[in-house]
Amino acid sequence: MEEKIKQSIKNVLEDFGISTETISLEHPADMSHGDYSTNVALVGFKKLQSPPAGGPKTFAEEIVAKLREQNISNVAEISIAGPGFINFKLSPKYFTDELANVLADGEKYGRGTALQGKTVMVEYTQPNPFKPFHIGHLMSNAIGESLSRIVENQGAKVIRANYQGDIGLHVAKAIYGILKNPSNHSGQAAGAYPKGTPAEVAEYIGKCYSDASNLYDEDMAAKAEIDALNKKLYYQDVELWSLYQEGRQITLEAFEELYKMLGTKFDVYYFESAMAEEGTKLVEEFLDKGVFEKSDGAVVFHAEKYNPKLHTRVFLTSAGLAPYEAKEIGLTVRKFADYNPDISLVDTATEQRDYMMVVTEAIRQMFPDKKYAERMMHVTHGMMRFASGKMSSRKGNIITGESLVLDTVALISEKMTDRGWSLAEKTEVSEIVGVASIKYSILRSKIGSDIVYDVEKSISTEGDSGPYLQYALMRAKSVLEKAKAEKISPKISHTAESVGDFEKMIVRFPEVALRAWSEAEPHHLITYLTELASGFNSYYAQGKIVDPTDSHSPHKLAVTSAFATVMRNGLSLVGIRIPERM
RNA sequence: GCGCCCGUAGCUCAACGGAUAGAGUGCUUGUCUUCGGAACAAGUGAUGUGGGUUCAAUUCCUGCCGGGCGCACCA
After folding, report:
1. Straight-line distance from CA A370 to C1' B68, in Å?
2. Taking the C1' atom of B71, which residue's CA lies nearest?
3. How do residues A199-255 score in pLDDT, each as one tens digit?
4. For residues A76 and A101, what is the distance between their CA atoms, to the nearest angstrom?
5. How far is CA A539 from CA A355, A469, A486, A501, A534, in A?
6. From the CA of A147, how many Å to the C1' of B58?
7. Is A203 a domain residue?
8. Lowest model confidence (mean pLDDT) among A8-17, A189-198, A394-403
9. CA of A195 to C1' of B25 (A)
10. What is the pLDDT of residue A463?
11. Residues in Cβ contact with A446 at an 8 Å cutoff, skipping those fewer than 6 apart
12. Tell me, in Å, how far CA of A506 is from C1' of B23?
């Protein structure tokens, strides 16, 4: 539809001797202005050889006259407003046909073809074994999972990848803590892991890590020991190996349980430990080829030579070890070898922005013909800060990603309306709703910015929230079930009265889904779905939908059904699960 | 010091260079409680600041003020 109108405008402009590649056609913020609006008369006015004396408005009139001659199908009315906007009003039939498409397409409604045939790798979450799963990982997971689904929805084959730091100083710290257990956590004997679920053991490891981390800064002797451990681990010391393997395994299992709750399933896991060798080799190879240079014993890359805004970074330390930079090179080569993605989308925290640009520049210089750099896309998320100064979880610990999820789920559980749940049902529902509320808080704003999270407010029973979206859908479901019981079937009636703002909003879903991809911004979906839920709640409040005495009842049911379909598809794109009841 | 990001109602967030800057929350008031009130409706209230570009600036450029992040052997 949009393309058809644009084409017509283009034709008309050519008649006036104006050629433009891009025509701006948008939905006016105020729906009473029409369904589409263009500013071509305002923009094109200056390009005219002999502009009409009446100004842009007169020019708009001339354009409109010609547009009307074209008789664009489904365009009911063309008018001029304000300084020279041309507004298009579509015929009701266009919308009722679209609603019929929603019902016919079901879960396929809203799919696009922008990435048809492409392979996209999305790399996200990236927690580190031996360390707690913290809030940043939760943000990365919510964003990455949503982007994965948005990309999939545009026809791409998606590879979900998780790159984890299973080697490095943090591991040495954790191992040191386990070997010594200086605070005697859980009364656990030093040098071994306690018995328990993966989550419990991971929590123990987290405490050991934290102890060692403090000692590292305060105690010179401890620092020396940890540094020595780090070196031993790097060279896979036999004595430490089983302790290392067990701890690595168990923290990874604990992460896996969280992914399940969050609704993520990774296709591939990459580990830093496996990238050091390949990365080192590559850096050395390209040192000879002149991409890298020696400086103070280290191997560095002077990114500022190619882009003055970038800086120099170390790719191999003077001790000959591979820092993150070299491992990233190894990872890049590996993932392109494994999947050859058309786009490699990576989500990290914002502080890695410049670092990533330097690495990307190095890759550009290393592999100009393979176009790796051109296919790399980096998005960054901000930090989650907490309102009300409440920085610890219910158990009094530092808030981790895991404790935030569990605390939120527990609060939701307390506030749930009792519907005669079994314990299993209640657990399941509170989990789905609790995770939804966290994901909503993360995804509702632009992904780059920091977000302020208030545990109490985000699960408050009123207003903008994940539960609000789920609740609207539950209501719609209820209505549809009641209609079924009363044997009224949904049927679209193709009359002018049957198209209101709410119906128009429903059929905008495909373009919102597309925009979420083209800007890589899930928050467009959240904003849209919130408006849509609000629209439905108003629609619902206006009068009965299921009413045997109302001849419009079948149409209202069709609209309700279309709403439910779009809400389901939309929630799926942001990675929010839908409960059976709530 | 240099680079990147940000500054919008009391608070948390929107706005593809466009029309009267939208939501939620808070506060004030109302609906209804017959399809699920975790709801609906009404009122209240904002673009940090000085220039510039444009028919049109929250949006682009620029000065200042304020905040976050990054800038060599950590990840």
Report:
1. 36
2. A311
3. 999 999 999 998 898 898 888 899 999 999 988 998 889 999 999 999 999 999 999
4. 20
5. 50, 15, 20, 10, 9
6. 27
7. yes
8. A394-403
9. 45
10. 82
11. A521, A523
12. 18
Looking at A72, A90, A108, the residue that finishes a domain is: A90
B13 closest protein residue (CA to C1'): A445
Last-in-domain residue among A48, A68, A90: A90
ipTM given for this complex: 0.95
Taking C1' of B55 and every protein CA, the nearest residue is A42
Question: What secondary structure letter does DSSP report for A32?
Answer: G
Strand B: which positions are within 7 A of a protein CB? 3-6, 11-16, 18-20, 23-26, 35-41, 55-56, 68-75
Q: What pLDDT score was predicted for residue A572?
A: 98
Average the pLDDT over each of A212-221, A273-282, A528-537 and give the range with the smallest value. Answer: A212-221
State which residues form the domain around A65. Answer: 2-90
Q: How many helices (H) and strands (E) does chain A have?
A: 21, 14
Looking at the domain assignment, is residue A246 inside a domain?
Answer: yes
A152: which 2 tokens?
A: 């999939």
Quote the tokens at residue A453.
Answer: 């999270």
Report how far residue A486's alpha carbon sits from residue A476's, in angstroms, rounded to the nearest whole number.
15
Is residue A208 within 8 Å of A194, Cβ to Cβ? no
- Provide the CA A553 to C1' B41 distance, Å, integer: 23
pLDDT interval class at A257 (50, 70, 90): very high
pLDDT score, position A390: 46
Separation between the CA of A479 and the C1’ of B42 (whole angstroms): 27
Count how many Cα atoms sit within 13 Å of the Cα of residue A197 in the half-sphere of its side chain: 7
Domain count across chain A? 2
Which nucleotide across the nucleic acid strands is nearest to A479, CA versus C1'? Answer: B35
The reported pLDDT for the residue numbered A393 is: 58
List, for residues A175-204, the tens digit of each pLDDT value: 999 999 888 888 888 889 999 999 999 999
